[in-house]
Amino acid sequence: MIRKHTFGTPFPTDAVVLSLPAEENPLPYFILTRENGQVSLTLRLHPEEKLYGLGEAVRGMNKRGFLYRSWNSDVFNHTESTESLYASHNLLVFFSPEHLFGIYLDDPGQVTWDLGYTRMDTAVITSENGDLDLYLLEEDSLPALARSFRRLTGRSYLPPRWAFGYIQSRWGYASEAEVRRVAREHRQRGIPLDGICLDIDYMEDFKNFTWRKDGFPDLKLFSTEMKQDHIRLIPIIDAAIRTEEGYAPYDSGKAGGFFCRREDGSDFEAAVWPGFCCFPDFLREDARRWFGDLYRPLLEAGIEGFWNDMNEPALFYTERGVREAFRRADELRSGRVDYEAMWDMNHVFNSIANNPEDYRSFFHEADGRKIRHDRVHNLYGAFMTRAAADSFRRFRPSGRVLLFSRSSFIGAHRNGGIWQGDNFSWWSHLKMALQMLPGLNLCGFLYSGCDLGGFGCNVTEDLLERFLQLGVFTPLMRNHSALHTRDQEIYRFSIWETMRDTVRVRYALLPFLYSEFMKAALTDGMYFRPLAFDYPEDPRAVSTEDQLLLGESCMIAPVLEQNASGRYVYLPEDMLMIRFRSPEDYDTVPLEKGDHRIRLSLGEFPLFVRKNRAVLLCSGGECSESLDDTSFTALALANSPVVCTLYRDDGQDPSPVLTEHLIRLSLDPPAGGGILRQHVSCPAG
Ligand code: GLC
Q: Which residues have CB under 8 Å from 445's CB, separation 6+?
């Protein structure tokens, strides 16, 4: 059951697709306070209370014990102390012997979530705007709550099937020749590959919707040739448009009046990669349409995938901010030079970027209403995604286009996927990526993954291999790294063959993982779940924080520590462990419910299969299009018949009907029960 409580005059966010009348009755569970225009909800937590949700946020799957802030931020150097990341997903689920409900705050401004931070036993959730729709979801299980939330907010985005292939990316690829070399190295060494991302270096002076003629003289021809080799080019598109007369997107944006404005009516400007830029007012329908139309030449050049970036929006500096910093520096100059003055100076210069005052200094025009940016800040990225997705529906109505964004808000999950933002080549960020995934799924973002290997700083060989072992299972499997860091393509490393075999396992599993993804997306379910969702009565499962359920049959438990030769795993039921080294080389070990120490040397990683359910392995290949999805090896631990369903479609249909694509397989257990290993054929058509 879903109930809506309205406070003040909420701004329409496009997050919710279900129209409900507002409740007259008071909101249960919470003590409500209104002060200085803010609305706060307070609730005493049960000692056993677990809190799930908040999507893109640091720390554990259970969000209890920290203060989080919904405020989309460009936070390149985030750590476990960072309160806000690139996205805001205001769904929180309460789960304890006393509670089983979720709340969704449909509020595009700043929201703080003090979840047992100030007082360990109390949650206080505060909306700064005080204007919001609050949805209360009550169901009888955690998976039912997840489904109910999706009913409220709409079906998750469906990427094309090729987007489940391995994608190589790096900030710095500046020419066709360089990109071709990357492709060649992968193909020649047998490292499977389906896509290469083009970062800002493909553009002319980092200007959106241009490409540098010296590096990429004929993008259409280049993209066609790459596609013949089954490799898609995936260009980046940033949010802002450089202020430059004669640059067509600027001229048309200016002529249409499509940019955000300052109080005095002039266009707001801030610097990002191309220098000073204007910011499209994505909250306006006509501005979205104008921006969406700018993707058209790229689509016509054969591009089938994009990543949308810098859309919090990131502001490197404004003229106001820089002048203010110099003014403060001058003030400090005349005083005593002591440590406090130096710290002040550091602070002044460090807060030039993404400064709150800048976010308060410009306005949107939505539904004929002028609204200050900070009150709707968290919508910006989501509405950029909407502009792009609407354009794809206009210009490529019969196919799916890959789209993943850095910033997002609930609602954007219908239009695209997201990546988990700029991370570092740190073991702690590998763990953070894993722990974030179920929250993202709960909020509807099924197509997601992190920068494998880490974006910032220098990766080590073992860390990249362990990142890839997680990436085998994430829908978006992309290796991405920053300019000036150590080269991070697999073939650069001494253990490249080990890494190659890890990616080959992904391809052997690809039809199965795609099937698990599509079943989850089309039934409003979750592809990744905390163990608590399926084993709510098992206290050990409920407190497990570094393992995930995947689809209907599996559990993953990657190695997350440096120099580890294995790890402890908790099995909430009897399972079959498949310890992979390559698609051809793996052990199958039946394990009983309980705790196990699993040996996993660097090139080994496990997949656990729940009892009487199956995993389907195909023979693999160098790209997703060359995979044979008619012939599989089924692996299971079974003492009764195993019934599983395989979802198979053309990977392009924008609105597939689940039941038309399901193939039911029924497998008999071995006599007396045990490991089932059987060839299964699913003829095409
Ligand atoms: C941002 C993106 C990153 C990209 C870089 C250059 O930091 O998050 O992925 O490589 O900009 O475009």
A: 55, 56, 89, 156, 408, 412, 413, 417, 418
d(CA 126, CA 449): 29
Tell me how far the alpha carbon of residue 584 lies from the centroid of ligand 1, in angstroms: 36
Parallel, antiparallel, or unpaired for β 66-70 and 111-115? antiparallel
Q: Which residue has the tokens 């955690």?
A: 142
502 CA from centroid of ligand 1 (Å)? 26
What DSSP assignment string belongs to 482-509? -TTSPP-SGGGSTTHHHHHHHHHHHHHH
CATH of domain 515-681: 2.60.40.4040
- Looking at residue 516, its pLDDT comes to 98
Domain ranges of the chain: 2-153, 161-239+282-315+372-503, 321-350, 515-681
**CATH number, domain 161-239+282-315+372-503, options 3.40.50.740, 2.60.34.10, 3.20.20.80, 2.40.240.10:** 3.20.20.80
Q: Is the separation of the CB atoms in 322 and 335 below 8 Å?
A: no
- Give distance in angstroms: CA of 364 to centre of ligand 1: 26
Task: Say yes or no to pLDDT of 345 above 90.
Answer: no
Q: Is the CB of 200 under 6 A from ligand 1?
A: yes
pLDDT value, residue 332: 83
Cβ-contact 241, 249 below 8 angstroms:
yes
Using one digit for the tens of pLDDT, what is the confidence trace for 133-183?
A: 999 999 999 999 999 999 999 999 999 999 999 999 999 999 999 999 999
Q: Out of 1.10.150.20, 1.10.3720.10, 2.60.40.1760, 1.10.10.10, which CATH number does the structure's domain 2-153 have?
A: 2.60.40.1760
For the chain, what is the mean pLDDT? 97
pLDDT at position 645 over 90: yes
